Amino acid sequence: MLYNKNPILFIMKFCKFVKYYLMLCLSTLLFCFPLKSNAAALSSDRAALLSFMSSIVLDPQGALNTWNSSNIHVCNWTGVTCNHNKNRVVKLDLRGRLLRGTISASLGDLKSLSILDLSDNFFQGQIPAELGSISGLSQISLASNLLQGEIPPELGRLSQLNYLHLGSNNLHGRIPESLFCNGSSLAYLDLSNNSFSGEIPIKEGCELRELTYLLLWSNNFTGHIPISLSKSTKLKWVDLESNDLTGELPSKVISQMPMLQFVYLSYNDFVGHDRNTNLEPFFASLANASNLQELELAGNNLGGNIPSNIGNLTNLVQLHLDDNLIYGSIPPEMSNLVNLTLLNLSNNLLNGSIPQELCMMKKLERVYLSSNSISGEIPSAFGDIPHLGLLDLSRNQLLGSIPDSFTNLSQLRWLLLYENQLSGTIPPGLGECINLEILDFSHNQILGSIPDEVAGLSSLKLYLNLSSNLLTGPVPLELSKMDMVMAIDLSMNNLSGTIPSQLGSCIALESLNLSNNHLEGHLPITIGQLPYLRSFDVSVNELVGKIPASFEASSTLNNLNFSFNNFYGYVPKKGVFSSLDIRSFMGNYGLCGTIKGMPNCHQHDNSRHFMFLPILVSAIAIIVLCICGQQRIRGIYNGKNSVSLKQVYEEPKYPRISHQQLVEATNGFNSLSLIGSGRFGCVYQGALGDNTKIAVKVLDCGDDKQVCGSFKRECEVLKNIRHRNLIKIITICSKPDFKAIVFPLMSNGSLERHLYPSHGLSRGLDLAELVCICSDVAEGLAYLHHHSPVKVVHCDLKPSNILLDDDMNALVTDFGISKLVKGGDESLSVYDSASSSSTDGLLCGSVGYIAPEYGLGRRASTQGDVYSFGVLLLETVTGKRPTDVLFDKASSLQEWVKTHYPHNLEPIFELALVRFATLPPYGIASQSHKNKSLFHEIILELIELGLMCTQYSASTRPTMLDVAQDMERLKQYISSPSSAH
Question: 359, 386, 619, 966: which could form a disulfide with 381 (CB 3.0–4.6 Å)?
């Protein structure tokens, strides 16, 4: 009624009703539409990821297995992260998965993607330009792949980008200017280790105000450092080394960066100010950078003096000014750098003396002053720098004697004083520097004899060089204690007497030079028996007698010089002698043979001498048998019954074997019984009274707590473990002055001897044997890590620590530096290193096999053993030692293999085909296409497993349980490839 009376009111009410109805319909539509839209978006992301997966041709870890399942939600796929509503993909992280293929352009359809990380893989091809269409992309990491081509200019559209890492690829060309001038908040930029060229394109008006890290090292950039970079005031890390940059040092740019911590400008073509005569402005520009820790300016063309204002950089930890044209003296103000640990001024034009003030920097660990014109005496105050580990003063004009204060340097490892004018004698106290690895005093005027204390430095690992001095006296017997040293050079002195046969104990020797002395007597047979000796020179001495046959029989020697002595007798053109010419023998007028230029021998004269040889040998054999029979009978009647090996394993307690029994078993620990040596002792072979063959590891403890700790540690490990692939202990012999561990002798020696047959074996391994051996090692380590009563980290896995029994079963040995882990917590160990100093990090293994995290100070872990096993696999496949330096531009064996994987493996296959001649039961691997394909497949499996085990990140490596299972499957596959899945 009211509406009839008032039509206007009715119309208003009706309009209001329509309005509410329309709003209700609209809200319903809006509610339904996003569901359909979100589902479509996720479906689009799924399709993009599947398209990306289709471009992957190799997935050795099975990272994308979950992507094949329709039952698994896309947000639960490996490496995929969605937003909170699970309706869009925001992160794709597949780093370190060893994926091979190309990066699909379909990734550009992931419109909500914020983080993309595909680093540490084997992706090839180009960076897809479609990535530039993902407007919200903030982080991109494609580092450490095999990518080629240029950086797409489209990446410059990414205004939200704050992290870009494209380092260590094969990219080239110029950097797009849009990458620097898009107004983005770029904070981290790494384009290092590529082949980019042109200038750094930061033009006037471009502002990178959030830039904190700029890494462009190892490219081909030219021109000056852009002045516009000075607007990046937040920079902490600038690394432009190893390019072709020119101009004066960028003082104006650097002065605007107060937060700088690391500046690397080495190996460019920079010069100093004022026509390359003034370095003071540059060091003044660093005055505001109070947190500067490392400064590298090496390998430029810098001239001028080192300015006194360098002393203002008081927080500096490392300073590299080497390989320049810097002249003048070292300023005393440098002593203000109280935090400096590394100082490198080598290869410049410096003169004057070494300032005493330099020795006030008590944190110094490495000092390089070599290849200058520094004169005066060596300051004795160097002996007061407690952490000094390396001192290189070589190639200068230093006078006086070697300071006795060097005795105080307990951390000293490298001492290089060669090519100076030093005189006096060698301080005997240097023998107390128990960590010395290199000692080089060559080309000086040093007098006197070689002190026994110095000759007995068993810590020397690399070389001892005392050549070209005025040394007199004999070659010390104590040199035989250097059982780890690789080279000894005593040439060009006035040494006299005979060559000690005990030098045969230096079993790691690769080079021995005793030439140009006054040595006399016979040449010891034992030197020719050194297993790794490659170079031997005794020329220009007064040696006599016949050249021992052991030199001819050596399979490693390739450089020999016997010239200008008094040797006589027949020289056959066999063995290593077949590659020598008359120059190696000239000046020995009693020698004869078939080598060109050498007089022929009268064979009939020699035949008379050899006529009675069979009779003599027979007589000696009869006498030896009689003596042995008497000793056997005497032993029985005296009741000296020895314990057999069988009884040892049946008895719950270890048998008692006396020190005297070990002396008799090893012929008095004779050097001829020596079969190995290491950092803490030597290993001798012998036989007990019941003919049980044993290996006796004798540890040279003395007062060395580290060696005693090694003995206790190894005994503790061996007491707790029982596994068929781990070495078993027979017993121990422990006295205050003698400690030894007795093992059964492994008749087939170490894996190292089989990998490198030139060491004396007649053949290497076939591929089936190799896989079985590696499988055994994996089983042994898996037991130590996962099944042993106490978890054990081996810490020193390498071929020489793997022994082979009569049936070629592998046994892991040498637990001298192992860690026993309490309660499964790898941060705690029953026995730790004797010292906690940084230099003891070397205890975590042998060079080449050490996991990278150990170099960062982390504790030994099972992941470190996995890394060592991976190196072992790659070594067995390639036949290259991880300590070889011939890896082209690669920094390690695994990096070298990675450069060949996967498209350039044929050279490795061919080398392996030669080394592993047979593949039982299929005969010669190259006889048929089927067998060759099988051979390649197995080698590829070993390479891929080795690369997985040696990943830089410890968390991404497999466990030894996984590795052991993979090796077992591979072993079964070899035995029955048709039945394997």
Answer: 359
